[in-house]
Amino acid sequence: MPDLPYLRAGSGPVLVLVHGYLGGAAQWQSEIDAFSGEYDVIAPNLPGFGAAAGLPGCSTIAAMAEAVLALLDSLKVPEFILMGHSMGGMIAQEMAAARPAEVQKLILYGTGPLGLMPDRFEPITVSRERLLADGVAKTIARIGATWFKSGTKARGYPLLTEVGAQASPQAALAALGAMASWDGRQALPRLTMPTLVVWGDSDRSYRWPQVESLWTNLPNVRLSVVPGAAHAVHLEKPALFHSLIRDFLQEGCGDNA
């Protein structure tokens, strides 16, 4: 597979941002702007999504992780800080399990260790049926509304639906199957790098039991719960989100910086 298209800005330690289902690198523009003054920020588009819509989508979470790692290899990135959102958080867990020595810090945001997502706003089988019936654009418009506390009125909703509608139908279907078959729970004790779990308290995709599983099974973890936010905290409450991320990234960097 050719290298994934990506957005990149800044210099310093490498910060890799992995988007979620029906996402794309363009959803991270606010984070790229916020952190590129201190970090070399790289945001890939996953195969079949966003600017990579022309590439065939992957049928497993592991294959998505391999695609991102292949991009980092081609860019000659030896080590990096890794953040994954939603399905991207599953991919980030897979990447960290595959190459733990390369992941300096891990941020698992709006995600969990079980792809089947118990207690999700709707079963993945229903999402698949409705995707086949409605198409990608209508699906992201419908599902995306559940990712915000204020639904379609949220300020980040237009960007989310615009980026999400770019996904190929093949990739959208394949990713649902990839999530449904993925279980990362056994790998959690091996992810010993400093880890931050971020969760909006109104998230309807990943409920508290998923988040609690990360919090209680990761060896070196802290938890930040964002009140009054749902699944897209970075678009709902960007200033607070950036503050939480920056605090975690700067910890352990020394008091003389």
TrEMBL record:
Residues 15-241 form the AB hydrolase-1 domain. One of its GO terms (molecular function) is hydrolase activity. The keyword Hydrolase applies. InterPro entries: AB_hydrolase_1, AB_hydrolase_fold, AB_hydrolase_sf. Keywords: Hydrolase. It comes from the Bacteria. This is Alpha/beta hydrolase.
